[in-house]
Specification:
Elements: H1 14-25, H2 30-47, H3 52-73, E1 88-91, E2 114-117, E3 123-126, E4 134-141, H4 152-170, E5 181-188, E6 200-207, H5 226-243, H6 256-278, H7 287-309, H8 313-324, H9 329-339
Parallel strand pairs: 1-5
Antiparallel strand pairs: 2-3, 2-4, 4-6, 5-6
């Protein structure tokens, strides 16, 4: 779901200042500085206050002071409770079996398995009909399997891309996912990497506020009608391309080349959407509505292509705006409603400019 960027503030966030001071002065209690820094970043994102650099410095200072303390006291659990803002969590393992994984290691989770949070970043499998924290929708070995750890940034980037691409293999109609549910993932850190069985990425769905939920979200494409599958095949690939756009905090002026590259991909996705819609023989969908969506998709593709070929920011911004005007959200909702698919009214907001949250 999209959130507008906050207006720039003239004030520096107080938590950011406190985070830096505590992180430097109270090195053995760096978790206080880290907590203040994380809180500051969340407030800054919401209010637009200054101090992002101070907050990050406070987190770094607190982290450096806490390294030995963390390893000693909690035996390698990277974080007691929270995931990062982008939905990621590096995870350690405590070798307790031949595989090197503890009984409740998150790297033991399998597709469709629900789990609750356990101590030190572990995941305790539970029945999906009972209260649980997450529902696993994809598990895959990391692309690197050598003894040398690839690095946390590499693992995080791979997990983010993989988990964003695989949601609709588990929930065919992604619009049916409740608004408060987002994607998260586990990936191994340097300590966990020592156990070969932990060299994998685990993607799961959970409430954004990390509260418990009940019931399964899984809905495979095999449960859909032919018309439903065709519409989702056409629109889901477009939504995936949309979700890979520049970061929501990055404007056209900040990185115009990133927007041009994205616009080129969007042009291809819009053309593919039009082709998939036009080459199918619809049986229950309203043909006139389908035709309008096809026409708008082709217009959007043209404007995205012009945006990709632009040589100045003004033209780039104009063409992106014209493409946004022809995304066919009204037609998509109408077709979804007629075909019995989810019609969350919030969903079209992701097509109003910006980037969907990667989860």
């Amino acid at each position: 779901m999209m959130y507008p960027a906050p207006q720039r503030s003239l004030y520096t966030n107080n938590l950011a200042i406190a985070s830096l001071i505590v992180g430097i002065v109270c090195c053995y209690f760096g978790f206080i500085g880290i907590g203040l820094g994380i809180g500051a970043l969340r407030q800054i994102k919401r209010t637009g206050e200054r101090g992002k650099g101070l907050a990050i410095s406070g987190i770094v200072a607190g982290s450096l002071g806490m390294v030995l303390f963390v390893l000693t006291v909690i035996g390698g659990a990277f974080s007691v409770d929270d995931f990062e803002e982008d939905g990621s969590r590096p995870s350690h393992v405590s070798p307790t079996s031949d595989s090197g994984l503890s009984a409740n290691s998150p790297f033991r989770l399998s597709l469709g398995q629900c789990f609750d949070r356990a101590a030190a970043g572990n995941a305790r499998p539970v029945d999906c009909t009972s209260a649980h924290f997450g529902e696993t929708y994809w598990v895959q070995p990391a692309s690197e399997q050598t003894s040398a750890y690839p690095g946390e940034d590499v693992m995080k980037e791979e997990a983010e891309k993989l988990c964003a691409d695989r949601v609709d293999t588990y929930v065919a109609d992604t619009w049916s996912i409740p608004d408060k549910v987002v994607t998260f993932y586990f990936y191994p850190d340097r300590v966990a990497w020592k156990a070969p069985a932990a060299r994998r990425i685990v993607c799961f769905l959970a409430n954004e506020d990390k509260s418990s939920r009940t019931g399964m979200l899984r809905k495979y494409a095999s449960s859909l009608t032919p018309d439903q599958r065709q519409l989702l095949d056409a629109t889901n690939q477009f939504d995936k391309a949309w979700g890979k756009g520049p970061d929501e905090d990055t404007g056209v002026e900040d990185d115009p080349q990133a927007y041009r590259t994205w616009a080129k991909d969007m042009s291809a996705a819009a053309n593919r959407q039009a082709t998939l819609l036009s080459n199918y023989r619809w049986t229950t969908a309203d043909k006139a509505t389908v035709d309008r969506l096809i026409a708008k998709s082709r217009i959007a593709a043209t404007h995205y292509q012009l945006a990709a070929q632009s040589t100045d920011n003004a033209t780039l911004r104009t063409e992106l705006g014209l493409a946004d005007d022809n995304l066919g959200d009204d037609e998509i909702i109408s077709l979804r409603r007629a075909l019995g698919l989810a019609t969350q009214q919030e969903e079209p907001a992701k097509h109003q400019g910006g980037n969907s949250k990667a989860v």
